[in-house]
Specification:
single chain, alpha/beta, D-Maltodextrin-Binding Protein, domain 2, 2 domains, nine-stranded mixed β-sheet, 20 helices
């Protein structure tokens, strides 16, 4: 398969030539330049990226500084840079939800010419989620960088234990396997809940940032619910047209939405008692490493922790795709890489993006530990065998969906975080929580002056 990857890169020679007509060829950089500064969150993928860019410097002589900013400060730092129209950063590895703000307010440079040349090298879902704005508009403001989605780790020693398997079969009338549906997930979580020493799962319920929203929305979608009405639930772009404005309140608080939230809250009883007090997604893996849970929800970008020294069960840890139900959707994570409109290094920044898009570079990115969405890379045996969770990532990518990425996403997210968490705490009923989200989202979205750019996902 390594040979196939090399042949694939050779077969794209015509594409590289085409790129050279628009952007300076790698190796022919201007002799005088100031180098590039790339802003990113401070986590392990940024370390992988810093290693990768040294290859670009070696090939071109252009220095690249990777500026790692704590996640708690990252969005504020970038917003301040935008407000000042600062050239502090040439490239920004930004969350998918930033795309609308970056595009509509002119903070991100239009990369449509570049992306049109390379988009077929990446999965259609990643191009839609990280690059295109508005959905279906054919304009692009990023390249896929660190693709990501939610998944699960589990204790294979528990699932494969003959006594556990026999007991599960007797209780539920079926074989103990990793769950394919959310209702199967509930059975497995219930089965392994044996307080105070063991619980079925540790999941995303925190009111920090987007945790409970990310945990709930994939159940909402899989049960047939929506934040907003969409013309076709199976269409990846999910462009919301102006004529659907009046139906907003009939979506998230529909019977399907209420059923989904009721189900999501019901799963709490199979989580550790302090799960609502978790302050970071790493707390779920902490419960797993402490032997408190049989199943742990986590972003795949953070799965390397499960194969490292911190996990005493690393030899017994397996991974599985987030379940579906009537439909099958998974919460998107990750970031694209965008060119700052305020950069004074537009030419060499585009040169870097052209270099980064090459399959050979994407393969190196994946080998270092990055999560590439290159079609050639994720289908390769090299990638699939590199880490035990990589096959889960490959299977999950076609199923990903995202929260709103329009400029109002922060207000919309605050609404979901507050009311979903209130429902989890028992302060609001599922119906009350979703009614309030629907009303607040309608109020926020109805204030938009350009309805045609409403993009839910």
């Amino acid at each position: 398969m390594k040979k196939q990857i090399r042949n694939g890169v050779t077969g794209l020679a015509f594409l590289i030539i085409a790129l050279a007509l628009i952007f300076p060829a790698v190796g022919s950089a201007p002799q005088v330049h100031t180098g590039l500064r790339v802003a990113c969150g401070d986590w392990s993928p940024s370390d992988f990226f810093a290693t990768l860019v040294s290859d670009f410097t070696a090939e071109t002589g252009i220095p690249v500084e990777v500026v790692k900013i704590p996640w708690s400060e990252y969005q504020t730092v970038i917003q301040n840079a935008w407000q000042q129209q600062s050239d502090e950063f040439d490239l920004i590895i930004g969350d998918s939800q930033w795309l609308g703000t970056g595009a509509e307010h002119g903070h991100y440079a239009d990369l449509s010419d570049l992306v049109h040349l390379v988009k077929n090298q990446f999965t259609s879902q990643s191009i839609a989620a990280y690059c295109e704005y508005p959905a279906g508009g054919g304009r692009y403001y990023a390249l896929p960088c660190e693709s990501d989605c939610a998944a699960f780790a589990y204790r294979r020693d528990l699932f494969e234990d003959p006594a556990e398997r026999s007991s599960f079969q007797a209780r539920y009338g079926r074989e103990l396997t990793v769950p394919q549906t959310w209702r199967e997930f509930r059975d497995v979580a219930e089965f392994f809940t044996r307080p105070p020493d063991l619980y079925g799962a540790a999941m995303f319920y925190s009111d920090e940032y987007d945790f409970i929203t990310s945990g709930f929305q994939q159940i909402l979608w899989s049960f047939g619910g929506e934040f907003l009405p969409v013309p076709d639930r199976g269409t990846p772009s999910r462009f919301v047209k102006a004529g659907m404005v009046g139906d907003i309140k009939e979506s998230i608080n529909s019977p399907a939405g209420v059923e989904a939230l009721t189900f999501f809250i019901d799963l709490l009883q199979f989580n550790p008692p302090d799960v609502l007090d978790y302050t970071d997604v790493s707390d779920t893996e902490g419960a797993f490493f402490a032997g408190k849970v049989a199943i742990c929800q986590q972003w795949i970008a953070l799965m390397p922790q499960f194969t490292g020294a911190l996990n005493p069960y690393k030899e017994q840890t397996g991974f599985f795709v987030t379940p579906g139900q009537d439909y099958h959707f998974i919460s998107l994570g990750g970031q694209g890489i965008s060119l700052s409109a305020y950069s004074k290094n537009q030419e060499i920044a585009r040169q870097f993006l052209s270099w980064f898009a090459q399959d050979a570079v994407q393969l190196k990115w994946a080998q270092l530990g990055g999560l590439s969405s290159s079609v050639a890379v994720i289908a390769s045996e090299t990638f699939l065998q590199a880490e035990p969770y990589n096959p889960v990532f490959m299977q999950s990518l076609p199923l990903v969906r995202d929260f709103y990425n329009i400029p109002e996403y922060a207000e919309l997210l605050q609404s979901t975080q507050i009311h979903l968490y209130a429902a989890a705490r028992g302060i609001e009923t599922p119906q009350e929580a979703l009614d309030r989200i629907a009303a607040e989202h309608e109020q926020i979205l109805s204030a938009r002056s350009n309805v045609e750019k409403w993009t839910e996902y």
